[in-house]
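Exercise 3.2. Students should predict the tertiary structure of the chain below and write it as structure tokens, then compare their answer with the key that follows.

Predict this chain's 3D structure.
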Amino acid sequence: MAERFDLIVFDWDGTLMDSAGAIVRAMQAATRDLGLAELAEERARYVIGLGLGEALRHAVPDLEESAYPRMVERYRHHYLSSDQELSLFEGVVEMIDALAARGHLLAVATGKSRIGLDRALGHSGLGRYFHATRCADECFSKPHPAMLEALMDELGASPERTLMIGDTTHDLQMAKNARTASLGVGFGAHPLVALEAESPLACVRTPAEMASWLLMHA
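Answer key:
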């Protein structure tokens, strides 16, 4: 069967790496460091996938503008203190290896910073599989289509032959804005019902389902 998609683009946190919980805890710790009321988990999960500065402004909108750099610093301190302990979801390495063997172009579009993504690619060992990557400090943040558009332009892929995979509505809305197909994964930051409301091609509930769907349909 001919592959439907030339280019498959993955979000990172909550899609390939089991890191959504660590991001929530780092945001909550950062708010405590600034003497603020602890951030509700639901609110913290909603902003995962956005660029860090934008995420914190959405999460804590009443904070004085001058205090956001301090909050960014505290978030990074808490997240980076334990990020090397995070792991990929089970089966991700095998899935990526199989997709690469089938000749798909593979890419990452993430709300992480370039430094953060390069660190994660190195720790995980997945860096060698990806033909291109884009981060929130290099493009407009999701759901703006800039990251996907830049990846398609660099790799010579059309929107019709590109698939975006992510665990947040920001990912799926970015795909809509870039006129690409999308796959929602319901084991990351946003609940399945919110992902389904964005009308992706499908939603999957587990990493194993993600791998199975991709190997069957992509």
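Discussion points: The radius of gyration is 17 Å. The beta strands are 7-10, 105-110, 132-135, 162-166, 181-185, 202-204.
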